[in-house]
Write a structure and sequence with these properties.
The protein has 10 helices and 35 strands. The longest helix is centred in the C-terminal third of the chain and has 18 residues.
């Protein structure tokens, strides 16, 4: 078996529906606390200033996979400025480009189980209508999911390596059906028809069962088991009250692994015997267990934990569930772990706030080696700043976490301006990962506080639900309150604090300038919502399975029209008096360009300084380096003009 069969790409929490507009990331996997080396704090020093070209010349790497014989590693890289497919010898050597797209970004899905063919996915200009492609050994490419108006996602390889699974909404644009493709010839058969608005999840190894997710609200969900032989469905997690349940994988003996926060704040990894219905705890800690995977030989189980803005990995013996030591690795997070067929060799990414994900390899019990470095050699990481998790008590006493980046040289005698950075979501999370824009701003003298306001994921179900139906109000007050934390450091100028955010964070930027007009000196809105009525009425068709949950959290555009108009900055833009910058993708299917057009026009009509950048070949976030360069340079110029002085 090449990989565990999981339809993971559609098992997305509502927290990510309006996610931050940032760099695509590999699945988060990191070293356990006892094994991960601590990243030392950078010493106070005069840092070299870097232009955005230098910082963006770090490579954006993702999506690694070992070849069937373990000799090569497949991955995606923006080495040319557009994300393409590459492979590198596992023993080390020069990477080789497999594709040469100059327009759309291509993301690796994996090698075929027995040969050098490659699956990858790409959309068109950021429209999020991904297709699945196969690159043959001779370099020719075939679209396995042709068509103009549907979305397709990879679901994993079958246990016998003779087929693979794809999700597609071509039959009904609202819901995703499951299809099985033959490895030889690509003949396709319908695996299951999704007519009830489920999220397809894990598939059993004998293909009899499909674990389907039924989302009630953003923090309340069930697992429904479909028996393909009988056609019957059974709710495995029927409950009263509010709890989150999500299928993870089927065990070798047919049991179902799943996560659940039943009876507590945080999700535990559970195991359910399908015959008896009895569940037992596999792993729990004081943070959310985000998921798990078996190694290809079924010898080990990797458990992923979302621990205080960084992901940690715990490796267990699959039979005894006892911890197993991981290889010695460099300081930082480990992400995107992939094992060889025998479970002895692994490839993974290593990153931190100061350097982007680079590709490494190791053997169990051995030492790690870097295969592909993402760091531009012109950058000294000591010139950059490692994020520090810092908490504060908000207006009602609730403790709010966030990540603070303080420029080198900032002190009580040399106070600096600051930006409060608000993530997307609304239930996303700012994490200890590399961001070229954050490092660019910090390197040029701006402190940044990436707040995880109430409603953020990763801090328990009560914290996650604390902003429901109070968006732009309860969470916005956290953001405003965070200014006190910044001022209390003694290194921040209280009169020079701005706000910046992407997607939902862009909405929060607009909301802050609208409803708390004296709180921030400037605002930078990146792909942000201005009109909740339009956004909720025009959500992409493939979000239908979670539409009810989204309405339950944010509001129904019909029943809650009055409230949604009250919290939509567009209808109150006359209150905005501080300089505003807006960045927008022309092809954005989530936040339509017209929203940014209208808010910009409304603010300009008041004579308030506004700068507006539209990117014709981007969707909901940046994927092209030249666009990032143009956007980030403009952001710094805007802040230098309106905040730094």
């Amino acid at each position: 078996m090449k990989t565990i069969v999981r339809l993971t790409l559609l098992s997305v929490s509502l927290a990510s529906l309006l996610a931050a507009c940032g760099e695509p990331a590999s699945p988060p996997v990191a070293a356990p606390p006892q094994a991960r080396a601590q990243v030392p704090a950078a010493p106070q020093r005069e840092a070299k200033r870097y232009d955005i070209d230098t910082l963006l010349s770090n490579l954006r790497l993702s999506s690694s996979d070992l070849s069937p014989d373990g000799s090569k590693v497949l991955y995606s890289s923006n080495q040319t400025g557009v994300i393409n497919l590459y492979e590198v010898p596992a023993a080390g050597g020069e990477p080789m480009a497999l594709t040469a797209s100059t327009t759309d970004s291509l993301y690796a899905l994996g090698y075929f189980p027995k040969d050098g063919r490659v699956l990858y996915t790409a959309d068109q200009g950021g429209n999020e209508l991904n297709h699945i492609y196969v690159r043959e050994v001779d370099g020719t490419v075939q679209d396995l999911t042709p068509g103009d108006k549907h979305k397709a996602m990879f679901g994993g390889w079958a246990d016998d390596d003779q087929s693979f699974f794809v999700l597609s909404n071509e039959r009904d644009e609202r819901y995703f059906d499951g299809y099985e493709y033959a490895v030889d010839g690509y003949a396709r058969t319908l695996l299951f028809k999704n007519e009830s608005g489920y999220f397809p999840g894990a598939i059993s190894r004998d293909k009899r069962y499909v674990a389907l997710g039924k989302v009630h609200t953003t923090n309340d969900s069930d697992i429904v088991l479909l028996d393909r032989e009988t056609g019957k469905e059974k709710n495995l997690t029927a409950h009263e009250g509010t709890e989150s349940n999500e299928a993870v994988a089927f065990a070798p003996d047919g049991a179902l692994l799943y996560t659940s926060n039943r009876g507590g704040e945080f999700s535990r990894l559970m195991r359910m015997d399908l015959g008896s219905g009895e569940s037992t705890v596999v792993y729990e800690t004081t943070w959310d267990v985000a998921g798990a995977d078996y190694t290809p030989d079924d010898g080990h189980l990797l458990v992923y934990v979302n621990a205080d803005a960084r992901t940690e990995l715990v490796m267990l013996d699959a039979a005894t569930l006892q911890p197993v030591a991981l290889p010695s690795v460099p300081a930082g997070d480990i992400t995107g772990v992939d094992f060889s067929e025998d479970g002895k060799k692994l490839v993974f990414w290593v990153a931190s706030s100061r350097f982007p994900s680079s590709l490494w390899t190791a053997e169990l019990g051995g030492q790690a080696r870097e295969l592909v470095s993402a760091l531009n050699p012109a950058i000294n990481v000591d010139d950059l700043v490692e994020g520090e998790v810092v908490r504060f008590k908000s207006y009602d006493g609730l403790e709010i976490p966030g990540i603070l980046y303080t420029p080198h040289g900032a002190s009580d005698t040399a106070r600096v301006p600051a930006m409060v950075w608000v993530h997307g979501g609304p239930g996303g999370q700012s994490r200890l990962n590399y961001s070229p824009l954050i490092q660019y701003l910090v390197n040029h003298g701006y402190a940044v506080y990436a707040i995880n306001n109430r409603g953020s994921s990763g801090y328990g179900k009560s914290f996650f639900a604390a902003d429901d139906r109070r968006h732009g109000e309860a969470d916005l007050d956290d953001v405003v309150e965070s200014k006190k934390l910044l001022v209390a450091t003694g290194k921040i100028d209280s009169e020079r604090i701005g706000i910046i955010g992407g997607s939902y964070g862009g909405y929060m930027t607009l909301a802050a300038l609208t409803y708390r007009p004296d709180a921030f000196r400037v605002g930078v809105d990146i792909f942000g919502v201005a009109n909740w009525l339009r956004t909720l009425e025009s959500i992409p068709a493939w979000w239908e399975a979670q539409r009810t949950a989204l309405y339950a959290e944010l509001g129904d555009p019909v029943a809650d029209k009055e409230r949604l108009m009250r919290i939509s900055p567009l209808f109150h833009a006359n209150k905005i008096t501080k300089p505003l910058m807006v960045l927008q993708g022309a092809n954005d299917p989530r936040v339509l360009k017209v929203e940014s057009d209208e808010i910009v026009a409304a603010v300009k009509a008041k004579g308030v300084p506004v700068e507006y950048l539209v990117f014709d070949d981007e969707g909901h976030g940046f994927v092209k380096r030249e666009n990032e360069k143009r956007g980030y340079e403009a952001v710094l110029k805007f802040l230098d003009a309106h905040l730094k002085q």
